Amino acid sequence: MAEQFLDARQAALNGLFDDAAVFPPANRPMEDALASHRGHQGGDRGWLVNRFLIRASQAGELPELLEDPDELQLGVVLDRTAGGTFAESVGADLASITGLARDRRIRLTGLELSLDGDDAEGEVAGILAALQGARFPENLTLAIEVPVSGRSAGEVLRGISAIAGARAPGGRYADGLIAKVRCGGTVASAIPADLEVAGFIRACAKEQVPFKATAGLHHPSRTTNEDHGGLEHGFLNVLAAATAAFQGERLDVVEDHLGRAGDQFKLGPGAMIVGDDVVEGQTLAAVRAQFFRGIGCCDILDPITDLAQMGVVTATGGLS
Fold first, then answer.
1. How far apart are CA 271 and CA 282, in angstroms?
2. CA angle, 76 as apex, 74 and 78 as ends, to 5°?
3. What is the average pLDDT across 147-156?
4. Residue 45 pLDDT more than 90?
5. DSSP string, 168-184
């Protein structure tokens, strides 16, 4: 039986963007960011937008802004402002958001935090242990950031291997464990090299660990940041690199996709074209479902504007 046609644009971009408007560089006030998020989800571009992201330290601001009835899909970044040891600060953040997890107006679907030191295996185990005592939904996505900028390939692999090892037994929360990579920041020096990002993606593929990406991914392809002058990664570059890694390509091929210019990309109903490579909708859907889960973006309108200029979506983010 022939495979059913799947629009490559939908396969590639559906729910790609977590709304991180309260984070730098946007740093929008919670009320303003939440109103915009509702506008995104209620409009033509709603299919592109996934959960609303906040910091754990902002948990107290959210309930009074919610409507009744409401069903806000929420992700929380554990920013560990309480201090103390890694375990203590994680525990404090989890305690601070238990009210959100029990609020019937909220669907808590994601938690995120970064590894802190050299003991990746111990920290991942500690995170899962802390969650065992909490009353959170069991289908949470738990994205653990593995630092890559300035780190050796061995250090990155140890972080990803720790996540893979915790996923292996399955069970409560373990199935939702994924890795996270930071692709930029508010200064040019925060942008990791192509090889560093490619090494992370290739290691995730090798260890069969899904991942998400964040920071600096405002545009489909490589773009110079007007504020700090750094050459930022593009989210279609990351998608292409993830697809190559998912298909078992070598590290140099994955790295090559990260460095491709915008004129090397086309995305239409039939396929995503990257240089001479043609990736159809069914493959893109598998990559998104099984491997590359999405990105955090502090201004959803940036990528939508660029995608509209490419002819991928309409000016309002819909599909024609």
1. 9
2. 175
3. 94
4. yes
5. TT--TTGGGEEEEEE--
